[in-house]
Amino acid sequence: MRDHQILWEISRLTGEEHRLRERLTAGEISPEEGAEEMRCIEQALDRCWDLVRQRRARRDAGEDPDHASPRPVSEIEDYGQ
């Protein structure tokens, strides 16, 4: 996945996140439903941002950014702890 594709996906997911918050505020979906959907969106965003960082790090190190690959959410979350 190229940088522009990843950034487009981040933009799409961010829009989805905003629409979900609006639906929650309007009472169109239950908080439980919203929480599950939000968790999925946040995880997808985490994976996208991680991939952007990997690609930039590879590029800065003179390596091929196309060799970066999406990591499992559990691995990404472990870095934050």
As a percent range, the share of strand residues is: under 5%
Q: How many structural domains does the protein architecture include?
A: 1
Number of helices: 3
Structural class: mainly alpha
The proportion of residues forming helix, as a percent range, comes to over 70%
Overall form: elongated
- Give the strand tally: 0
Low-confidence stretches: none
Biggest sheet statistics: none
Topology of this protein?
Elements: H1 3-25, H2 31-60, H3 73-79
Helix pairs in contact: 1-2
How would you portray this structure in words?
The protein is mostly helical and 81 residues long. It has one domain. The chain is 74% helix and 0% strand. The chain has helices spanning 3-25, 31-60, 73-79. α1 packs antiparallel against α2. It is elongated. It starts with a helix and ends with a helix. 5% of the residues are buried. This is DUF2630 family protein. InterPro entries: Uncharacterised_Rv0898c. Residues 56-81 are annotated as: Disordered. It comes from Sphaerimonospora thailandensis. Residues 56-69 have a biased composition (Basic and acidic residues).
Task: Provide a brief overview of the structure.
With 81 residues, the chain is mainly alpha-helical.
Task: For this entry, give a set of tags.
single chain; 81 residues; mainly alpha; 3 helices
